[in-house]
Specification:
This protein is mainly alpha-helical and about 110 residues long. The protein has one domain (about 1-110). About 75% of the residues lie in helices and about 5% in strands. It has 4 helices and 2 strands; from the N terminus they run ββαααα. The protein has helices at about 15-45, 45-75, 80-90, 90-110; strands at about 1-5, 10. Strands 1-2 form a two-stranded antiparallel sheet. β1 (about 1-5) and β2 (about 10) form a beta hairpin. The radius of gyration is 15 Å and the shape is elongated. It starts with a strand and ends with a helix.
Length: about 110
């Protein structure tokens, strides 16, 4: 089975390339969360911007929930079975897309 990334790459979910992609998305997601924690207080002066960031954060957390579950399973060296792992793997591209939205908003706010 293959997954298509937001930038159009086709990756086999059982490949090293897909594993590297999932790890990269996971790292970017966590970095974006850290950046959000620092930027949200500054956005408080702009209610519309604050709402936009909070909404994007909530969507990113929702879209990345399964990727976080996959990371925990990998950390704990356990397998949730092929069907569950495939379901989790399918969520990587949506997490990537949601993370890109947050990254773009953060870039707009950077001095």
């Amino acid at each position: 089975m293959t997954q298509i990334t937001p930038d159009g790459r086709r990756l086999r979910v059982d490949s090293d390339e897909f594993r590297d992609y999932a790890q990269e998305v996971f790292r970017r997601h966590n970095h974006a969360l850290s950046e959000l924690m620092q930027m949200l207080p500054a956005a408080g002066d702009e209610p519309a911007r604050l709402t936009q960031l909070e909404d994007a954060e909530a969507e990113m957390l929702r879209q990345c929930e399964k990727l976080n579950q996959l990371a925990v399973a990998a950390r704990d060296q356990r397998s949730d079975g092929p069907a569950r792992t495939l379901d989790l793997a399918r969520s990587v591209a949506s997490c990537d897309t949601a993370t890109r939205v947050v990254e773009a908003l953060l870039d707009e706010m950077s001095p």
